[in-house]
Amino acid sequence: MGGVKGVKGRIAVVGAGGVAAAATAKIAKHGGAFKEMYITSRRLGKCEELRESILARGTDVKVEAAALDAEDVGSLTAVLGAIEPELVLNLALPYHDLNVMEACLRIGANYVDTANYEPVDDARFEYGWQWAYAGRFKEAGLTALLGCGFDPGVTGVFCAHALKHHYDAIHTVDILDANGGDHGHPFATNFNPEINIREVTAKGKYWEDGNWVETEPMAIRRSYDFEGIGVRDMYLLYHEELESLAKNIPGLRRIRFFMTFGESYLTHLRCLQNVGMTSIVPIEYEGAEIVPLKFLKAVLPDPASLGPRTTGKTNIGCVMRGVKDGRMKDYRIYNVCDHRECYLEVGTQAISYTTGVPAMIGSMLLMTGVWGGAGVYNVEDLDPDPFMEALGAYGLPWKERFDPEPVG
User: Fold this and answer.
1) Burial class of residue 284 (count of CB atoms within 10 Å of its CB; 0-12, 13-18, 19+)
2) What are the structural domain ranges in the chain?
3) Which CATH class for the 154-347 domain?
4) Alpha helices (H) in 275-373, listed in sequence order
C-alpha cells in the first residue's frame, strides 16, 4: 500500500481561473485544515496575482505560486512531487483530469475535482474514465473525490441528504440551475466559454426507468418560479451528475437536469452555431490549423472579468418526489447566491463562488479526516451531514420546502 506521502495540511491547487480565485480565497480564510497552499498553473503570472490578492486580504495560510503544464503528466509529477501536497485540488480544464489523477498516484497525494473528464476532440463527458482508476487509488491508499463543485457536487450531496433524512426511496429528481445575473455584455459565458458552449450545444439526455433518453439540444423547455429570481425559462441538458446519481440512488425512476438561458444568449448561440463558430473540428486558416470554438473563446469576455459588473442572483437546487413511511412526499432544497456579495467577499461572481466553495469544503473534509476511504468516490457516496453543515458556515446556506412547485 502506498498512502499519502505529502506534508500534512499542504494543498496544491491546479488552475488559476475564476473558480480557483474563489476556492483559494476561501482556503486562505480557514487555516484550521490548511497550513500551506500552492497555486499552480501554466500562467505563473495569474498564480502570483491570486497569491498577492490573498496576502492583501490577510491569511494565516502560507501561500506560494508555481508554474506547471497540466497537459503534461511529467510536468505535473515533477512540480507537484517537489511541492509534496497532502491533497491536489484540480480546478484546471476537465481535459486534464486524467493527467492530474495520474500525477497524484505517482506522488502519493489525494485528489479532488469539480468536473468530470472529457476528451479535447470529442464533445462528450462521462465518469467511466475516472471510475476506472478506483482500483489503483484503493491499492495506493489514496482518495479521489470527483465532481465536488455545485452541480455536480452540492446537488449530489442534496440528494444524499434527502435520502438520509427525508425519504425511504427517491423516485424522481429534477436538478434546476438558474442564473438571474446580468453582466451587461450582449453575449458572454459565466464559466470557461469552450466548456460552456460544448455543454449546451450537445444533445440533451435524461435517465428514466433504467434507460437513457436522448433529445435534440434545448428541445425540452419548462418554466419555473425560482426563489429570489422569479419565473425563468429553463432547458433540459445532459449533465454529468445524472450518470453518478442514477447509479447511486437506489429506487430512482427518473432524473433530469435543467438550466436557464436568456433569449439574448440563445439568439447569439444559434447565430454562432449557424456559421460554424461552435465547431470543435479543426479548420485551416491562412496556413494554420485552428479550432473555431477555441478562437471564439479567445474573443469572448473572460469569465473572470465579469465579477465587477455582474448583479443579480443564482438559484441552484433539486426538486424531488419519493416515499416516506408509505406516503408520497415532495421536497425542494436549494441555495440562492448573490453575485455582488460574492464579488465583494472573494473577487468573483457567483458562478465561480458556488463551484469554488464546495471544492474547498470537500478538500477540507478530506484533509481533516471527516471524509475519507481509499478509492474513487462521488460526493453522494459519502456522509452528507458534515458537508451540509459546512455549506452554511462557509457561505452557501441552503433552504428546504415541502410544498415545491412541480417541474412537469
Assistant:
1) exposed
2) 154-347
3) alpha beta
4) 292-299, 339-346, 350-367
Tens digits of residue pLDDT in 3-44: 899 999 999 999 999 999 999 999 999 878 999 999 999 999
Map grid coordinates 473563446 to a residue: 297
Residue 251 pLDDT more than 80? Answer: yes
Residues near 346 by Cβ (< 8 Å), separated by ≥ 6?
Answer: 21, 22, 25, 26, 353, 356
Give the percent of the chain with pLDDT over 70. Answer: 95
Distance between CA 358 and CA 23 in Å, rounded? 8
Instruction: Catalogue the E-assigned strands of 25-138.
Output: 36-41, 62-67, 85-90, 110-113
Q: What is the pLDDT of residues 281-340, one digit of tens each?
A: 888 888 888 888 788 878 777 766 766 768 899 999 999 999 999 999 999 999 999 999
pTM recorded for the entire structure: 0.92
Q: Which residues contact 73 (CB under 8 A, 6 or more apart)?
A: 99, 102, 103
Closest CA to 252 of 204, 205, 209, 206: 209
